[in-house]
């Protein structure tokens, strides 16, 4: 389908314009012309845990399929912004890649009419419906197709902390069961040490959005969060959560928070272990990809120099995040792409990727000793938590246009100066349109 003067094939004008607004005008990869016959996979893992994970995954694939000339392209950027813009530009210019990394669920709306169906050739052929968790099968089903294969899951509601800082001020992390407890701990750290209590990145608005979602859930429950993403949010509860986020941002975060990204914020928890230089920050909220980052430092060990708890007040909750590989239609290398997607779903590939990434496999047949200790525990939580709300900042909970509006609300109303009421009203409007 070609609509208006955009030259868009298989993507409606609204989706096209959303993609361009998200960054397509930045001059990223993709040029006019027909799709090449090269097997090309795009992803956003350019450094740290992500680079190690994708390298392990692609090396395993190349070892098994040496006959396929593969081109794995890394496109970096916070929250997949640059990757999504590159994908959109190539698709709209009919320069279709073989596959690309992206979130499943409602995020796939941006590619609604440009997705290949893998249900018969991959899901049924490999028996993946029998070995993948039911929840992820639902998120991988879109528009009566199964265009993606999941590679791993992150839990979002974690609070990682430097054990030496908590011990120095006498904070028992396990006793923190509410946002109020957390705020008391941050104040104690602020008063008794020179360490920043709460590391946080503000260069992109998604970090504020995801932290606000954890505070809302902690203070008002999973139902309050689910009601919000479904368009029926409790305004007072939302304002209360913004008030807490404002207090954290005004009193407890790094002085350079507005200019740093997530990786730099995580690094502040580690410090310089080879010297007497203490860590710069005591704790950080985020997905368990931070574990993948922490384990890169051989001197920063789980259970010794760092540990974790569920974000206070969210015990028994697994805030659900999924990474996957998506297959576009009009695929230039259909046979090779099917082989790639079959490999992504294998037990071997899921272990190869997730151990260094800090995420956990979506298959049900993984043995605990095939994962690191932290990930084995996380895998148990993936299978036996009480509730699994979908992450808002990473594509599962709301459609791309809604997510863009939500991030704009944070950027416009909650990056300092702060306006809790306007931010709450903006989010309510964003999810209700």
From TrEMBL:
It holds the Pfam family SBP_bac_8. The keyword Cell cycle does not apply. Keywords: Transport. The keyword Oxidoreductase does not apply. SUPFAM superfamilies: Periplasmic binding protein-like II (SSF53850). It comes from the Archaea. InterPro entries: Bact_solute-bd_prot1, SBP. Belongs to the bacterial solute-binding protein 1 family. This is Carbohydrate ABC transporter substrate-binding protein. It comes from Natrinema zhouii. The lineage of its organism: Archaea, Methanobacteriati, Methanobacteriota, Stenosarchaea group, Halobacteria.
């Amino acid at each position: 389908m070609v609509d208006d003067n955009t030259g868009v094939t298989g993507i409606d004008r609204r989706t096209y314009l959303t993609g361009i607004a998200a960054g397509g005008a930045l001059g990223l990869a993709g040029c006019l012309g027909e799709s090449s016959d090269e097997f090309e996979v795009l992803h956003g893992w350019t450094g740290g845990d992500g680079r190690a994970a994708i390298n392990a995954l692609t090396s395993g694939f190349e070892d098994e399929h040496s006959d396929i000339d593969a081109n794995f392209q890394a496109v970096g950027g916070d929250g997949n912004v640059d990757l999504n813009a590159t994908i959109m530009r190539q698709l709209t210019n009919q320069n279709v890649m073989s596959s690309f990394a992206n979130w499943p669920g409602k995020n796939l709306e941006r590619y609604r009419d440009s997705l290949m169906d893998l249900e018969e050739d991959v899901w049924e052929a490999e028996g993946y419906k029998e070995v993948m968790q039911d929840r992820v099968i639902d998120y991988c089903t879109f528009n009566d197709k199964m265009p993606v294969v999941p590679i791993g899951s992150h839990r979002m509601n974690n609070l990682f902390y430097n054990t030496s800082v908590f011990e120095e001020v006498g904070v028992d992390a396990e006793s923190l069961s509410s946002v109020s407890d957390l705020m008391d701990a941050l104040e104690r750290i602020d008063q008794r040490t020179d360490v920043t209590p709460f590391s946080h990145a503000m260069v992109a608005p998604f970090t504020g959005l995801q932290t606000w979602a954890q505070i809302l859930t902690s203070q008002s429950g999973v139902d309050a969060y689910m009601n919000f993403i479904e368009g029926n949010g409790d305004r007072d509860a939302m304002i209360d959560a913004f008030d807490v986020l404002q207090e954290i941002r005004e009193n407890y975060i790094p002085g350079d928070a507005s200019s740093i990204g997530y990786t730099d914020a995580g690094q502040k928890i580690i410090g310089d272990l080879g010297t007497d230089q203490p860590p710069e920050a005591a704790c950080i909220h985020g997905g368990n990809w931070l574990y993948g980052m922490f384990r890169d430092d051989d001197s920063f060990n789980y259970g010794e120099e760092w540990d974790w708890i569920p974000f206070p007040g969210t015990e028994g909750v697994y805030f659900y995040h999924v990474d996957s590989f998506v297959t576009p239609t009009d695929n230039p290398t259909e046979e090779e792409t099917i082989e790639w997607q079959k490999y992504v779903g294998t037990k071997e590939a899921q272990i190869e990727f997730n151990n260094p990434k800090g995420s956990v496999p979506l298959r049900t047949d993984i043995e605990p000793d095939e994962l690191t200790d932290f990930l084995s525990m996380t895998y148990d939580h993936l299978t036996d938590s009480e509730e699994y709300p979908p992450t808002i900042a990473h594509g599962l909970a709301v459609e791309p246009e809604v997510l863009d509006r939500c991030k704009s609300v944070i950027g416009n109303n909650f990056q300092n100066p702060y306006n809790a009421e306007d931010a709450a009203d903006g989010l309510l409007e964003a999810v209700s349109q």
